[in-house]
Sequence to fold (295 residues):
Amino acid sequence: MGVLREEMLSGDAVLRIDVMGVGDQEHVLEEMTFLNYRLASVQSRKDIKKAKPDMIWDRQKSRKDIRYQEGQLLMDGDWEQGELNKIIVTMLAFEMDKVGLHPFHSSAVRYRDRSILFLGGENNHGKSMSQIEGCRRGGKIISTETTVTDDEGIVVMGSKSVYLRIRAKGTERADLPSQDQGVAKFFDKEPEFIIYEDSAPVDLVIMPGIDGHFDTKVVEMNRFEREYQSYHSVMNYFGLNQLLAPGGIVMPVVDTDELRQKRGDFVSRFAADKPYFMVRAKTPQLLFDEVEKLM
Fold:
């Protein structure tokens, strides 16, 4: 049984993973669909640059265990691919944070030469449908699930898959309805999806709420709401609410007070100079009508 060493990269962030006790396994992950859906643009390489591993997984141990010690995540035993995906999302997001890359749980479109961010925030009530409606009106996709900005708030990367078609074992979700069914409820046909590749600042932030039971409502968000919901959005990746596996196995805390405060300072700067609106509507069409009025 040999050792597999691999690095995951997103922008300038690098996560090194060493796996002990591998057989003919060539990669840590069998496929990268979920990782790219969650962290925008991830690549792997075998040409190791980091001197020290960030994750060490000993597959030879019989008991499943995970812990964070002295800056390294240590794993023992047999882990499902879906569980690994969730763990790597947290660890790579942590490395992204260190180099000033900030993933937001959000979608974004480039529409009429402006970048509109649909913020997931504390709840997730329509960012995907809002993005699809923006594309139906001629907008281009900046991101679908995750929007990554630099420390100045400029969008530098975004996930481009509109749908997550593949969920590895361990990431299945019975509570999430079919994405195709959701689209069919609001759209006669799927629009053409055109990718916007350039970097750009965020011009308008929308907290969507698509709910067929409520009348249309538009409210400008105050400073506390803007920062609160934005912080929820960026904290979505750090695993603090993640139950990884049956048996009550949780994601260890890899965050630090220093990085949390630095993240909070970034969110405060990001939210300070942008228009933020909560828009609630029965359909994405009615919601985007209100977005157009705000532009």
